[in-house]
Design a protein that fits this description.
alpha/beta; TIM Barrel; seven-stranded parallel beta sheet; 9 strands; 13% strand; binds coproporphyrinogen III
Length: 344
């Protein structure tokens, strides 16, 4: 039997001498090879739906850096598109979608279990990757959490404060809850299909969890992620789940148990030593390094990387950034971060 992959060992709660490493948005515009393949595909969405090229960009950072995990190249907004929303990307600005703010618009969406054919190229990408990845590299599949996906479906774009989604939640709870349920069911379907195609770990991105206040945080961030996790665990009990309630602050404490997740991803808004004391005792943690260090590099990158590795040395830890790497990052800084973790 081969030794279990390091990412799976950390997710199972093992404390390793050196944390395994991967990076959010590791396949992305900071890499010249990514930009070349995206140009070959035509545009970002064509790249997502082209299994050969999507697998190629997933593999690029593995070849260049030897990360311990690969994350499927796709996007959280493919689920709304599969549900029937129009989706396009405006260069330099970000995503645009047709909006859902009424029962009539909700009624036009397809049922959650009818998204399969639309998303089949993604499952094909997973199949290619499970054949082509090095045997020591873990394949992570993902989806957006219902709240984060709903914020884009309601506003039709990214928003600084998720105002339109909060407004619909407060003005028409029936439509809002029905939309959340539809996304939750579709996400369970989508993630199950990724697992069946060969993904070994699932990550749920709740990028806008931090704007949910009071009881809304438990109800609309934690609870839908818990529903997805328990549905996946029922069918696939051995597939670890990483949950990312970004911006949770002190509400990161207790998140493992509340969601039923094997690992909690942490943004850069909390201190690593606080995480070691209050979150890591419940299971594996991942994240925390400010993405901007990948732009600025130097001594600050080295000392912050070391500080996080030291703080989290006593428990299960996967090294990662607090959010995605940005297009202006220097690929050499990524290598410096990896060397620092592996020699810390
Ligand atoms: O490498 C990876 O991490 C895997 C692929 C991945 C992408 N998006 C590719 C992508 C993953 C896991 C995502 C998740 C995602 N997508 C999230 C959650 C994580 C987060 O960042 O908070 C969100 C909110 C989205 C929605 C989305 N997709 C936005 C807001 C944007 C535009 C912003 C931007 O960075 O341009 C995207 C586009 C996107 N998704 C790109 C990539 C590589 C850039 C598109 C390009 O190549 O032009």
């Amino acid at each position: 039997m081969t030794a279990k992959k390091t990412v799976l060992r950390a997710l199972a709660g093992e404390v390793l001498p050196t944390p395994p490493i991967w990076m959010m948005r590791q396949a992305g515009r900071y890499l010249p090879e990514y930009r070349a393949t995206r140009a070959q595909a035509g545009d970002f969405l064509s790249l997502c739906y082209n299994p050969e090229l999507a697998a190629e960009v997933t593999l690029q950072p593995i070849r260049r850096y030897g990360f311990n995990a690969a994350i499927l190249f796709a996007d959280i907004l493919l689920v709304p598109q599969a549900l029937g929303a129009d989706l396009w990307f405006v260069t330099g600005e970000g995503p645009r979608l047709s909006t859902i703010t009424s029962q009539a618009e909700l009624d036009k969406l397809v049922p959650a279990d009818a998204i399969h054919d639309h998303l089949s190229p993604i499952y094909e990408t997973v199949k290619i990757l499970s054949r082509e990845l090095p045997s020591e590299t873990t394949l992570i599949g993902f989806a957006g959490a219902p709240w984060t996906v709903a914020t884009y479906m309601i506003a039709g774009r990214g928003t600084p404060d998720q105002g339109p989604a909060h407004a619909l939640k407060d003005a028409d709870r029936v439509v809002f809850d029905a939309l959340m349920d539809r996304i939750t069911e579709a996400t369970i379907h989508y993630m199950s299909a990724q697992i069946e195609a060969g993904a070994e770990v699932m990550k749920i991105f709740d990028s806008w969890a931090g704007s949910l206040q009071g009881a809304d945080f438990a109800q609309y961030s934690i609870k839908p992620m818990q529903r997805i996790t328990s549905a996946l665990k029922e069918k696939h009990p051995h597939v670890p789940i990483i949950a990312f309630p970004r911006g949770a602050g002190e509400r990161y404490q207790g998140a493992h148990a509340a969601i039923g997740a094997d690992c909690i991803a942490i943004d850069d808004g909390v201190d690593a030593s606080w995480v070691a004391q209050h979150v890591q005792p419940d299971g594996c943690v991942q994240g925390n390094l400010k993405s901007s260090h990948m732009v600025t590099g130097g001594e600050a990158l080295v000392s912050e990387t070391r500080r996080i590795v030291e703080a989290l040395r006593g428990g299960p830890h996967i090294f990662n950034l607090g959010h995605g790497i940005t297009p202006d990052a220097d690929p050499e800084n990524v290598q410096l971060m990896i060397d620092t973790v592996r020699n810390a």
